[in-house]
Structure to design on (185 residues):
């Protein structure tokens, strides 16, 4: 964990990430009930800040203490420094769960369980791509084709797409995007 933390601290300091909100969050956030939100691997808070401004109380979780120091100190933002390989989500806690540019398959089931009835998940990350793409090289951090869709198929799928995109550093990538809602039954 210390090694990962140091690596991410250096990465955030040396290679600034873009600071605008992910378009998928802007487009779909209003479908979520106002209440508690979770931003998994929140980084420097670009999405966290937007979610909080929309009226949510946000748990912003990241391994990097440097990145978390860039997240604004506000009463409705709760910064949580945690190793995401060990962190567990509380059941039935969140009206909104956001997971951007991060993949930890052990969270799949936990995200579904962490959602309250009618809770919304917005999930977007890299998929395996061949050719001239700058996705992470480790397959552990890459989705397979339709993996995200199949993982969350028990929820009501509002939007799903696999498409070419530009990553946080301006490089060509391939991503999967999903918006789904937990049934209230």
């Amino acid at each position: 964990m210390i090694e990962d933390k140091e690596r991410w601290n250096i990465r955030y300091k040396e290679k600034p990430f873009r600071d605008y909100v992910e378009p998928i969050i802007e487009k779909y956030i209003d479908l979520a009930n106002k209440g508690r939100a979770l931003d998994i691997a929140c980084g420097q808070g670009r999405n966290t800040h937007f979610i909080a401004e929309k009226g949510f109380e946000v748990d912003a979780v990241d391994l990097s203490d440097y990145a978390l120091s860039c997240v604004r100190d506000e009463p409705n933002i709760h910064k949580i420094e945690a190793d995401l390989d060990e962190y567990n989500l509380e059941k039935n806690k969140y009206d909104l769960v956001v997971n951007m540019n991060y993949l930890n398959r052990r969270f799949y089931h936990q995200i579904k369980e962490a959602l309250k009835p009618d809770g919304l998940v917005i999930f977007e990350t890299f998929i395996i791509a061949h050719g001239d793409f700058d996705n992470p090289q480790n397959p552990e951090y890459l989705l397979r084709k339709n993996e995200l869709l199949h993982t969350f198929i028990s929820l009501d799928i509002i939007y799903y797409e696999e498409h070419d995109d530009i990553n946080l550093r301006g490089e060509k990538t391939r991503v999967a995007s999903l918006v789904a809602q937990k049934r209230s039954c």
Remarks:
- Residues 2-181 form a domain with the Rossmann fold fold (CATH 3.40.50.150).
